[in-house]
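quick one before i forget lol
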Amino acid sequence: MIKYENVSLQYPNGTRAINNLDLHIGKGEFVFIVGATGTGKSSLLKMLYRDVLPTSGKVVVAGRDVARLPDRQVPLLRRTMGVIFQDYRLLPEKTVAENVAFTLEVLGTSRRTKVRKVRIALELVDLWHKAHCMPEELSGGEQQRICIARALVNSPPLLLADEPTGNLDPSTSLDIVKLLEAINRRGTTVVMATHNQRIVDSMQKRVVALANGTVVRDVARGVYDDGS
């Protein structure tokens, strides 16, 4: 489903984030991307939804070379994936339901379909009863579950999570990752960048470790290792 072929990424300020990286991720996998700060974890994810373009090499998502897509097709690419961030990025002036529905509104989804999909997404994360709450009324764990619901509302085949437990306590963090695991069992490919050793060690999923912008370890049922 995802292929990085001899990919390098250098930012305009000269920072080299990715170096000659090769990595393949199959449909339906759950993969942890681990490594110390500055090893390229976030950059790896950003290239998938074309927030940044590789300096060289090829990034392929579902058979499409991301860098070669015309600008008009980038929104179509992004509709095939959901993205979860560490800092939630919920709209404070909108209710929980309105936050989850935001993507559907951009797509021009009918009201009837929107209501149905929002309810399905919120029930999946067990927060339908909070649909009319404002984000400030929720705990950090609840806000992150709302972000997961928003990422899943359009039923994307790919879910990207960039340090989704970074602001959460250990118990809540484990609950969030268990939820992602349940979503993965439904067929969604999950790629998660994380520093959380406890979670990685407990889940026993595929672990890809980065150091100096390249893959230094790739284990099918691995534990945390930053490659150092």
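fyi The two ends are 29 Å apart (CA to CA).
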